[in-house]
Amino acid sequence: MAEPQYTVTSDSETIGEEKSSSAFPETAIGIDFGTSQCSVAVWNGSQVELLKNTRNQKLMRSYVTFKDDVPSGGVSNQLSHEYEMLSGAAIFNMKRLIGRVDTDPVVHASKRLPFLVQTLDIGVRPFIAALVSNAWRSTTPEEVLAIFMVELRAMAEVQLKRPIRNVVLTIPVSFSRFQLTRVERACAMAGLHVLRLMPEPTAVALLYAQQQQQDCR
């Protein structure tokens, strides 16, 4: 079954509520979005099930490459060599860049990464770009995350055989309110409605409690 194609909505475009006409009950997926890797899970009625990509992997690398006409991420695309990750065509570390301004030390530290990170040091969003055919292709952390979320959503829909509109994401405890809104914005650009942004320690505690309950049965 071919993965459905989606379009990432522009960051400047207003997004309305997406109404589903599906006969299926609403299903939410959970995404643990890490700096270098991510995973997607769903509650199957009795336990949490980790979904796999087309390469039978439960853990996927968190990056988006712009080397082709259509950007693709670590969900459907596999870099053939580490050189491709270092060539400037792939953008990663989205989790560290999203929602940060160009005066942030984390942003300045990211200038050492292979893709382009430029700052004006005036408290605005940093400029990032990928190297595509010897030219810089500008983008934003929100757009990169949205492209990646589109692939995760398509992967889940193929396996679950139903449309996916709702998502629960794990986020670092240290994220500011503005960073949280930018994560929500990226999800909206990918056609996903955020039910909850769950701090990572909370997610771990809930999983442990659920496993303890199962062991006691």
Automatic annotation (TrEMBL):
Stretches the record annotates as Disordered: 1-21
The UniProt record lists the keyword Nucleotide-binding: yes
Biased composition (Polar residues): 1-13
Domain of life (superkingdom): Eukaryota
Record-linked InterPro entries: ATPase_NBD (IPR043129), Hsp_70_fam (IPR013126)
Spans traversing the lipid bilayer: none
Keywords tagged on the record: ATP-binding, Nucleotide-binding
Pfam family, one: HSP70
Protein name per UniProt: Heat shock protein 70
Species of provenance: Salix suchowensis
Classification lineage: Eukaryota, Viridiplantae, Streptophyta, Embryophyta, Tracheophyta
